[in-house]
Amino acid sequence: QVQLAESGGGSVQAGGSLRLSCAASGSMFEGWYRQAPGKQRELVAGIHGGGGTQYAGSVRGRFTISRDRNTMYLHMTDLKVEDTGIYYCNNLDFRKWRSWGQGTQVTVSS
Fold first, then answer.
1. Closest alpha carbon to 99 in 24, 2, 32, 20
2. How many other C-beta atoms lie within 10 A of the C-beta of residue 78?
3. Is the dihedral of CA 67, 15, 60, 6 positive or negative?
4. Nearest-CA neighbor of 30 among 107, 104, 87?
5. Which tens digit of pLDDT belongs to each residue from 68-87?
């Protein structure tokens, strides 16, 4: 089974930026998910086969999802404390979810 590998997280101050990376899985419909402390995992951004994208309202205008042949990215700007969490990549269709990776921790301080 394909192992997902997220990277690029870190600790930044509010207003800072980070770029997360995820090794490509071969699926055309992928997304970045976030699990904040004490909260359920949520979809924050997705990219479709035709290149279309979708974003959660809380990150729209600040986050940009993209990909090349081998890697999917999440470019995060103007980070807020509420963006803190563990970020994962996986299929957009929950019926096609692969085993979750360890994720990459993003911590935003005020």
1. 2
2. 13
3. positive
4. 87
5. 888 999 999 999 999 999 99
